[in-house]
Automatic annotation (TrEMBL), chains A, B:
Residues 129-362 form the Peptidase M24 domain. Gene3D superfamilies: Creatinase/methionine aminopeptidase superfamily (3.90.230.10), Creatinase/prolidase N-terminal domain (3.40.350.10). This is Xaa-Pro peptidase family protein. InterPro entries: Creatin/AminoP/Spt16_N (IPR029149), Creatinase/aminopeptidase-like (IPR036005), Creatinase_N (IPR000587), Pept_M24 (IPR000994), Peptidase_M24B (IPR050659). It comes from Metallumcola ferriviriculae. Residues 2-121 form the Creatinase N-terminal domain. Transmembrane segments: none annotated.
Length: 378, 378
């Protein structure tokens, strides 16, 4: 991070968001992490100081008695920085304007891109936690066929799946970066609900429990011969895996079966081709091409609307980089972790498709959530 | 809202946060709500237009094709506003700076205080939803004594309580306003975990599942003769109630029993005294006085740290106004809904105390989550 700060001519970064704090320090307590472009970082803890000091390996940890003392401490520690980096994609405007007054004369710049880019490459320790997260996630999905019953409401299925995950240590919440974004475990939808469009940029939305929470499971009763799509995250020890499977009680209409087959083929094609150095955007366009050649373009990643991505990084947040997306013309990077989610939406019928989380290695993609990708007929 | 905009000399407000959108329009789809200080509001929907139009009663609903068209539409609709209100306590700095460029020449001001103040008074329809939310919450708590067993992990108890709530339509998430704030159902802690301090401004914190999610239930096994504190929200049809009960398997040490009694007395005293027009801050100080006279000041609302509030508004968000807090010298208002939560923390032993959600009426407080306030011994 310090190299990148130097390269961008930023004298110091102030890290505030809890996931980034955890990433750099090992603690998510309420704190300011001061990272000068050279020299030791300094962790200023508001609350709770005792917990932060216990959790972090950083040497320089102090209690921040009052936010008003921040300029003196930072100016002293970072030789009166002229350019200060903040996470401006998540820091509220009010806080930003407050820091602007506190650091009168300094230029405030956005370091969220720098931080997000740095987190693309996972360390060995992070990959190990993600593997463990995937193992628990697979254990949850293994139990779904025993839970799913004809006539149960979507929300009942959600309740029972969530309870299984929670007992294995799921956080009960999936950190999502950005304004107005909130998700708990993910999306469970049955039949036509699977094709109800979303208010945000995701392949599926769902009707939810009403207009105040317009996503995921609702009160609809699950019937036979319709797709039940379970797009839930595993979120254990801070790290996320993302996974989707389609279930059905009895057989599904041929159109849906065929589309699901195409989705799995698209995933397999990407997994087969992807190598570090390849353009992420090209992989997205190849997925689109495949769907078009299969005559299913109109249903791919939305109905009459094509989501601009087919894959996304996961880690401490669900929407990390890289993106397999239109406009993301960056090379795929070794040791990154991505979820690939080709899905088809059929209005009135529902959603089918697949999602798995992969580790990018020099030899190609390793599927971390490996289990049967087919429609699971009960 | 328009009266308040006029009074503050704001020509138009642009409402963006999903809870506020839902409050004013009935839909939480991704949209800009344009409220001129006079004349009709206009809802510009990014996604999903069909759902938004179906859900809202507003007449003026349009698809926003591109954010770049926003200045022309707003200038046309609001006669080129000189002062534009935004929700600057939640809108990220990056978005704020983008709007500043879009509306070059206009002054951007914060309307979050105005919106939060307006939401203090609940309508009859809102109170009815909150009553229904309370009824479901009571149904969940009624089942806790059947779930709680010696030797189960906190997270197992959490999983089973959450599943009950979810089946009754709980959202699985509790909207909290502010940076770095996230909560799912609330806090469940046993024994000494109940007194582990929090990273944020709340009476209890809990150890959680590790430093990446340092709050609420963890892996600790629940034992006999220790307090198990369940501070969970009900969140149904958009509206929240907040409630805490303490359970124990077998009897508790006398110190804790006495402190719980004092907590209930403090709650009852506030509920007895509170009337519209009274100072919210004074009610907070009276709670502090009561705790001090009982010789328990050191343990009240934190150990060796006194939380600056003993009550908070609830509604579409968990941390609404008013606050029964130091520095909140505002009169209590008829038809507001508040949660009152006097609690005591004993390091090494745990937390005891009570929380209920009340409706403020001209005759005093009506307890919406009325059930046994005592320690529930199993």
């Amino acid at each position: 991070m310090q190299r990148k700060l130097q390269y961008q001519g930023i004298d110091c970064a102030i890290v505030l968001q809890s996931k980034a704090l955890f990433y750099y320090t090992g603690t998510a307590q309420n704190a300011h992490l001061i990272v000068p472009s050279q020299g030791d970082p300094l962790l200023l803890v508001k609350k709770d100081f005792g917990r932060a000091r216990e959790e972090t390996d950083l040497q320089n940890v102090r209690q921040l008695e009052s936010i008003k003392k921040l300029p003196d401490i930072v100016n002293d520690h970072c030789r009166t920085p002229a350019r200060i980096g903040l996470e401006m994609d998540v820091l509220p405007a009010k806080n930003y304007l407050y820091y602007q007054r506190l650091f009168d004369g300094a230029e405030l710049v956005d370091v969220s891109g720098l931080i997000r880019a740095q987190r693309i490459v996972k360390s060995v320790a992070e990959v190990n936690i993600i593997r463990e997260s995937a193992a628990r996630q697979l254990e949850v999905y293994r139990q779904i066929p025993d839970i799913l019953r004809e006539g149960m409401a979507e929300i009942e299925l959600a309740a029972e799946v969530e309870a299984k995950a929670r007992k294995l240590g799921h956080y009960g919440i999936t950190p999502l970066r950005g304004f107005n974004l909130a998700i708990f475990y993910g999306h469970i939808m049955s039949g036509e609900n699977g094709a109800v469009p979303s208010s945000f940029e995701g392949p599926t939305g769902g009707k939810g429990l009403g207009p105040a929470m317009p996503q995921s499971a609702g009160l609809r009763k699950i019937r036979a011969h319709e797709p039940v799509i379970v797009d839930y995250t595993g979120c254990y020890n801070g790290y996320i895996v993302d996974m989707t499977r389609v279930y059905s009680i009895g057989s599904l209409p041929e159109t849906l079966v065929k589309a699901h087959r195409v989705a799995v083929d698209i995933q397999d094609m990407i997994a087969e081709k992807a190598r570090p150095g390849m353009s992420c955007e090209k992989l997205y366009f190849q997925a689109l091409d495949y769907a078009e050649k299969a005559g299913l373009k109109r249903y791919f990643l939305g109905y009459n609307y094509t989501l601009p991505f087919v894959g996304h990084g996961v880690g401490l947040e669900l929407n990390e980089l890289p993106l397999l997306a239109r406009g993301y013309d960056q090379p795929l990077v070794d040791s990154s972790v991505i979820a690939i989610e080709p899905k088809f939406l059929f209005p009135g019928q529902g959603a089918v498709g697949i999602e798995n989380t992969f580790l990018v290695t020099e030899h190609g993609l390793e599927k971390l959530t490996a289990s049967n990708d087919e429609i699971i007929v009960i």
